[in-house]
Amino acid sequence: MSAVAVSTQMSPAPRAKINDVNESYQMNEMLINEEYKIWKKTSPLLYDLLCSYSCEVPALSVNWLQEFTIEKNDNAESFISAQFLMGTHSKDFQNHVKMVSVSVPPTLYNDYTGPSPSIPNNLLKSRQLNIVREWNHPGEVNKLRVNQFNKLFATQTNGGDILLFDLKDGDSKTHKSTLKFHSKEGFGLEWNPNVSKKNLLLSSSEDCKIALWDINEKLHPEMKPTRTISSHENIVNDISWSRSIDSVFASVSDDSSYQIHDLRLTTGPIVHITDAHHDPDSENNFNFPINTVEFSESVPTLFATGGSDNSIQIWDLRNPSIPLRRLTGHTAPVVGLKFHENYLLSSSVDNRVLIWDLNRLDEGEPDKRKADYVDPCLAFMHGGHTGKICEVDWHPVLENLIVSCAEDGLLEVWRPAHLGDEYIEEENEEEKEEGGTKSDDKKESSD
């Protein structure tokens, strides 16, 4: 009897917890939908270009191709046809890597010298994605990366293998080579950006290891790594090559550390910071996993890390133990980073893509004692997704053109309005002042 009585008395508690969870989930969904409606109403004021596509199978990874073409429609109006690769992730359907083309205004190309800067009518009438090519992919495409030098691209599978595809082979519908080493799936993948080492590929995985691959022109059906690194104690989430030293790269892990490696040495990482992400304002000394890392394109010693503490840390190799700056703006773990000139893109589980203006680093961190504090480096917030951001990419040539994909199945091509306009205004004012000074000098000399 007592056992029955006890179970009867305890039964309402779990049911109450389930009701609380359901209510919290419903409230969160309502909040997401309400924020999306607000963003949709204000989006005409926020963007120079915004195209949103609902994919049948959600994309997990996107990467722009560098080449593009300037074409003309039936009305002899010029437009740009840009292309990117996207990899799908589905457990129920055949997965693919797709080459996709999208039409954008010619004014996005700084060197455009055509007769008309107007937006072509065909862009207004039809914004459909055009699937140019497809490759079959075994399982989900965790990550894909294009080698802009030799037109190969690599993908990470959900089984640990890395696959190589050849863009130059117009008839191929499958991969050319399988890179065998990792025993678990991963999301860290990057080609060396330096032309002298264009054949080097790095990968990292949930097996806590990093692999270096030397990809020559002749692709073998199966390949092994030329070197492996096991310096992390937990999942290695991401890696990034230095843009200035072709043998140096960074890695980040669930073990809360970032490491800097030099392939010229075999003695382990040259920098190993074990507590790179923690909240300095918290009494808790807990160190958070680090999810992503990216070297700057324009400043050789600068790189950024994003962690599960919802923050981004900016680091300088000249003083690697202390972050140069902490960027705060996301409300959930940061999962992706991408530099472009002096801007930094960040993506997060909070459904947001933020753009940071690193020219404002000297303005200092915001005062968190104020309820409405905003980081002065925050230049733009993209709120067009209602699910976790999977990946974001800057176009390497076309000005401020961005593609983003998320778990909500939406793929969006967009360009923020007025990004960098304040610097153009400052330059114009300086030119006016210089012109005024010169004219005053001329006047004085004539007198």
TrEMBL record:
Short name of any one Pfam family annotated for the protein: WD40
Biased composition regions of type Acidic residues, renumbered to the chain: 422-433
InterPro entries (alphabetical): Histone-bd_RBBP4-like_N, WD40/YVTN_repeat-like_dom_sf, WD40_PAC1, WD40_repeat_CS, WD40_repeat_dom_sf, WD40_rpt, WD_repeat_RBAP46/RBAP48/MSI1
Subcellular location(s) of the protein: Nucleus
Gene3D superfamilies, sorted: YVTN repeat-like/Quinoprotein amine dehydrogenase
Annotated region described as Disordered, given as residue ranges: 422-447
Keywords: Chromatin regulator, Nucleus, Repeat, WD repeat
Basic and acidic residues bias spans: 434-447
GO annotations of cellular component type: nucleus
Keyword Repeat: yes
Main location, first listed in the record: nucleus
Occurrences of domain Histone-binding protein RBBP4-like N-terminal (ranges): 34-105
Record flagged with keyword DNA-binding: no
WD repeat segments: 179-216, 290-319, 327-359, 382-414
GO biological process terms on file: chromatin organization
PANTHER family to which the protein is assigned, alphabetical: WD40 REPEAT FAMILY
Protein name: Histone-binding protein RBBP4-like N-terminal domain-containing protein
Organism of origin: Pichia membranifaciens NRRL Y-2026
